[in-house]
Design brief:
Blueprint lengths: L3 H16 L8 H64 L1
Amino acid sequence: NFIYPSLCHIVAVLVVICLSPYSAELSNGMQMAFLFALFTSAFCREAAKECRRRKKEYIKCLESRVAVLEVQNKKLIEELETLKDISSSKTD
């Protein structure tokens, strides 16, 4: 799943290289180096995509946590005000 699109892309490029009229001019080492570079860039692209997905998920989690804490903070502020009012009425 994670590397599958990259492998399909590599196989397609390999077929193009083999069918290319210039394939005889490329050594096996050059073909392998090209495939390795292609695989590496495809792998990095997939890893970056997954990293962005995880980052979005983390940000959503933080946003929901902030919302919960804001509500909790508002309740505590109201409770503090109530306690201050009770305290000031007792001292009067």
